[in-house]
Amino acid sequence: MSWAYRIVLAYAGFMGMIFYFLYVAAQQDNQMMDERYYEKEQQFINVVEGARNLDAMESRISIRIIEGEVWIEFPKNSIDAIEKGSIEFLCLSDKSKDIKLSLVPNENSILIIPGSSFINAQYQLRAEWINKDTPYAFREKFYYQST
Fold first, then answer.
1. 0.85 exceeded by pTM
2. Residues sharing a CB contact under 8 Å with residue 76, sequence separation 6 or more, in sequence order
3. pLDDT tens-digit readout, 32-88
């Protein structure tokens, strides 16, 4: 076999590999975590500032599952005069199971969410709120497992 045939075979094999990768890429289902991803990217500076404000506090946010309910306990001085706030649970395996709520904790600075809202999956928790003109933000992944 001459070197010209080898070059043609190598070129044809390379093109076949490229077309195979294009086919595999076309079969992928790529979903963005947020529909308004680029808008939220612009607000990221506020999230970083809110996370710094929360890190400066002495106590931390705790997430617990008690009798099938999700209990989120906030530091009292970060939520005592809340002006506005929201909390999102983004299901990493099924976008249709995302949960979005307004942040309204009870008098003990605990937000209780019924377990019927969740499926057994990993969630990305996103909380943002303003308390006494100070922004706060919290991000954490957790796995909900019903008992």
1. no
2. 59, 109
3. 666 777 777 777 877 888 888 888 877 788 888 888 888 988 888 777 778 888 899
